């Protein structure tokens, strides 16, 4: 079951859109779980993708996304980050596997169970790819499209 949620989160990494509503479809239990993790003063805009609730909120100057399932469980938190701050080992892995590709979007997801999952959009001038690098360092192509 946990793998299903991690796969769902990975699919959502680049699908988070800020067409957020006011949260009227979000249960009070999910909102309470959010408050327990991020505090009462944190204002969030809510969306729902598949069976995952996403709270978009600011922490300092950073746009964050907290993920919850329909059973009120906190799944983790993610954020876009500057691709220049990508860990060196991951950059090397991408360069070796996709020579000439440039990372133009990077996302870091911290599952509630620990670890980090990265998502990247890369392009080599002809093909765009969505990549996921899991907690074990395994690089997976999630989507591929020609320009």
From TrEMBL:
Domain of life from the UniProt record: Bacteria
Signal peptide (from-to): 1-20
Gene3D superfamilies for the chain: 3.10.450.360
Alphabetically ordered keywords of this record: Signal
SUPFAM superfamilies: BT0923-like
Protein name listed in UniProt: Beta-lactamase-inhibitor-like PepSY-like domain-containing protein
